[in-house]
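Loading example: each entry is read as two labelled lines plus one structure line.
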Amino acid sequence: MVELLLPLFVGAPLLLGGLLFVVPRLSPLQPIIAMGSLLAVLGGAVTLLVLTSDGTVLAHQISLWPEGIAIAFVADAFSALILTAAALVAVISFQYMIVSGESRSPSIPALVLVLVGGVAGALLTADLFNLFVFIEVMLLPSYGLLIFLSRRSDMGASRLYVVVNLLASTLFLAGVGLIYAIQGTVNLAALAGAGDDPATAIATAVCLSAIAVKASVFPVHGWLSRTYAAASPAVAALFSGLHTKVAVYVIYRISAVIFEGDSAWMTAILVIASLTLVVGAFAALGEKDMRAILLFQMVSGIGFILIGVALFTPGAVTAGIVYMTHHMIVMGALLLVASAIEHTYGSTRLERVAGLRTREHLVTAAFVIGSLSLVGLPPFSGFVAKYALVLASADADAAIVAGLLIVVSLVVLIAMMKIWAEMFNGKRHPDVEVLAAESRIRTRNGLYDTEAVNQDEVALEAARAIEYIDPPRGIIGVEGDPHEHRGTRVPLPLIYPALILGGMSVALGFGGEFLVSLAEQASAGLIDTGDYVKAVLGR
Amino acid sequence: MSLALSIGLLAAAGVFLVLQRGMIRIILGFVLLTHAVNLLIIAAGGVGRRDAPFIGGDTSMAADPLPQAFVLTAIVIAFAITVVLATLAVVGKGDDDTEADSSLELSDPEDSASEKSGDLK
């Protein structure tokens, strides 16, 4: 009977999102309803995870049409796990948006809810056309979030984002049409194993290439760093956990169900995934902005995740799923650290902000946890994920891939050390108070980055900050001490969301066995799709 | 055959327009591209059988309703996104880097203040 509630994951956020459009903008109901329903989605996802963690597949035929005709909603261990992680990132990012005041911009909570509804739909549906619809449901509010919360007046990034996604969606729709032409159905379960037929395989490949654009896989990854860099940092954190990961989820699902891990196609994915992780990691080295470096780490991470499905052994798929969960949480944490820094200091450019280590202890802690986890050191979740992935690659006779994973991890470490050396170590920039004051004035007056700010006002604000913001607690400051405790600090509530995600990473590092056992269950459902097909088609 | 040719022609024209400068041409290109895909889906359902399903009780020659439902949904979605794109074509102050004379960098907000031409074609 529980499966009857599956459409609620989509319906409830969409309905409440619609309701929020008529609730007054500054009413306290806005964040309460939005946060409440996000928490409900998270709670529901955890319940699903508990129910499916023994390998059960829950399926509901919408309107109780007969199996095969109805659009089915399915939850297995894989979709439940990814839904849980996505909901977690959404809750934490939205919490950040409430604290930073971004959720008070018009219709932002509503857009976040619609976005989450679309994500839940895309993760739960078992119908390719329905998947296309839910991806669009997920993208349309993202256009709004990107445009409304962008602090830059130029719309170039938004144009690029909409155009790239529209092109990919059109291509995906064409692929769905081709599959329907050949097979007469777009029900994913009915298409199980259809990849043996060359025509179906090529039609499916059209779908996969379209999804690869959305997942920002090399060589179609260029849009990500350009568009997400123009978004508000909290929105970038939200997107990082939802958009590209939904696309990766779809690649996993389609590869497993339609191709059933056919080795010829999987070799192609393996080559592309390897290139993605190398290119992403090296591109990050050339960037001079913390957020840009993190965005290229995201691209690199997509490569790591796809290695799992490309090798298609039980161990590799398990490792890939563990990596995906870990990556959603850790990227969220790191991007929220960048958000907190950008919100407070007005920039994440490496040369503009320095000396955070001695002033911002919690920010530093969150960054260290996040970056060490991303690199893959114990006791963080990154170690579990990378260790499993390297081990699985070696077991699958892909020693080159195993070596590549380790080398690329070193490149990731170099990129993170670059941020550490320039942003956290080093002396504070003498103008840092002025820049932070300028950022505060812009936020207060709702100005874009390009608009001029009254410099006298900035100087006054900066002087006042040194006087009043967080005065020394019983410590007499030494004259000229670069690390003195006065001046701008990242407000505590802004850093808690990142710390919570960082704590999750530590917890999953210590409790790695728990995550791996869940992922094993998920990968068993992908390797042997029998239960999935039986649940959807009833035979 | 005529359907295949129309799809090919629409797709070719759409790709050509998307590769041109200026947001309006890109938008029109996408309109043509989505038309091409919609026709593709209609073609996927087969065009041999095209009778109405309920008249006369004979369903053997009835048209496949599923592609029609797909296309209806796809048209609505494409329309919504076209509106978003059209909005993006008119907002912003001359920062349209699909235009020829734009020398803007996305990552450098300091530069974009100087450009105020507002040429939208």
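Residues 13 and 29 of chain B are 7 Å apart (CA to CA).
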